[in-house]
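User: Round two. Same drill as before: sequence, then structure, for each protein.

Assistant: Same drill it is. First protein:
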Amino acid sequence: MTDGARDESLFRMPNYPAWFGADTALLCGSAVHWIVISLMAYELSGSVTMAGWFSTARGVMSVITQVVGGAFVDRHDHRTLLLVQSGVCGLLWLTMGMLYATGRLTFTLFMVLCLSSSAVFGLLDGTSNAALITVVGPERYAQAESLNQGRDAAVRMSGSPLGATLFGLWNPAPFFASAFCDLVAFACSLTLSLPDRPEVRQAEHTVSSFVRDLVEGWRWVFASKTIVNAVIIMGLFEFGGFAMRQAINLQMVSSGVDALLISLINVISGVATLAGSLVSSRVCDRVPVGRGVIGILAFMALGYAPLVFSSAYGSVVLSSILTSLPMPLFGALVNGFVFSKTPVDRQGRTRAAVMTAIMFFGSGSGALAGELLPRIGFTGFVVAMMALVLCSVVLAALNPRIRAIPSSPHWAEVEL
């Protein structure tokens, strides 16, 4: 592809505006009601314990359905699945809003509707990303991923405050807003015109063939040494980074920092991520993936250094900015290479396998923070997690497969 074609706006591509609209609307629908769900669980159950178990149940449902969801996405038409996802979720949130507005929403109904939404999202969440490769092509996937990273940060940054504001004005409002967003996603999906996929028409729709495809997809993922190495490196980094974020929150809460100031850090991180995405979209095609990943990991590891010397609010803000700025470029390089090299008929299974493995690494980091902070203190915990994060940098630097991955114009010359 010529440099002129690469410089052309993605929104000039035939199907990209419709895809971007559908994907953004789905994300907005989730962001608007996200902060309200936990409040509702406590309000309807009257129990902190029940609300906690409810949150755990939603997470477990998403993980379970995500494991098989990748194979399901690969075996069906992506446009159809986007219509199903947006349509079903829109109906669920509309039902939730109507029941709440009429005083008929019980905790049992609330749980059934929320778990149903989690199941649909876990099963079909990879659809939009799987469709992206056919919309923009492998050559521009990294650029599209950069744009997505910034868009995601902006939506998450504004979604929670908007949801809380709507909830304060009228309690059912966030659910009607989510239903409206899903309706927009449905309308955008209707205008999509994706290439025909012969493997979808020829697929056997039996339980045995589904299991066979599921196993084959996971086997293919773990047969790729590059993907396995990348997952281990990213998993270590994610574990350390997520544990660090949990420790920061616990430290601030225990120190009596105002809740508004704590929430403001998320906004600052979102702004830094958005700024980073603007830079990433301009340079992601020119940065060699291997050396870029090593440099970014090292930069983010050192971004936690201010916390070694002080746990003051200013140090937390500075660290949040330093670790958020390079995230879009990191995502564009890693996701761009892995998923642009993944065949269309394996996109769903590859994404499900990678995300499940990374979630496995990060799942115990919150508990670790809670256990170790009282024993070794905040500074000791930061040093320990920085050491773990630096281990991921060393592993990446010593791995010839990772180190040798070139910039996107040369991805066709290397194997996944």
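Second protein:
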Amino acid sequence: MTRTALVGSLLIIVSVLFLGNAWQAFRFARLEMDVLSIRRQHLAVLEENKRLIVGVAGLRSPRRIRSIAQEELGLAPLAADRVKRVDFAGGAGGD
């Protein structure tokens, strides 16, 4: 192999390695942007989940349920003397 061929081969190899390195850097930057986008989406979903949990807690509030029962359904608390307790000998399963 002549000296010129050796230098030419080295130039080609160095060029290919440089292009490979540039391609890897481009891929890394693109993946990094994808990860950042997914992280933002994840945080948005977490915030929405927190809001929904607070909403569910408000909907399950005994005060809210009592208000709906009395105002919308016309129900009233039952007087204690109208409550009758029924005991089964075998417990809940009837054994």
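DSSP finds two helices and no strands in the chain.

User: Perfect.
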